[in-house]
Amino acid sequence: MSEGLTLEIVTPEKMAFTGTVEEVTIPGTEGEFGVLRGHEAFLTSVDIGELNFTKDGKKTYYAVNTGYAEVTSNKVTILIETAERSDSIDKDRARRAKENAEARLAQIAKDHVDYEKMRIALIRAITRLHVSEK
Questions:
Q1: Is the distance from CB of 45 to CB of 71 less than 8 angstroms?
Q2: What pTM value is reported for the model?
Q3: Residue 104: enclosing H or E segment and its boundaries?
Q4: How confident is the model over 17-52, as pLDDT tens digits?
Q5: Which of 49, 65, 86 is the last residue of a domain?
């Protein structure tokens, strides 16, 4: 029997990752959580944030958007809106998105219909910039 944990990261466009890993850390909506082989089974929602996993002793980082994660004792399946590996993030584009979101947020009231949309765009851009440095 394999000692690893099967991980699948799936977006609407593609299978972002599939393989055997030692551990995975996921940004859950109730807080970040880690999974090792043998974990108790559960289903949870995933928040915007940094997802990482260790494979062959090396960490790989992704900036992810919202979605769901299903955990079983030997497999984690993550169905997510977007997943960008750290080395594929366009830092300039992320920086521009951050600046644009900050500028828009500064111009609109908190009760404006677009405020939450811009706040989420800012969180995504900050996350992408942070992950791109790893």
A1: no
A2: 0.87
A3: helix 91-107
A4: 999 999 999 999 999 999 999 999 999 999 999 999
A5: 86
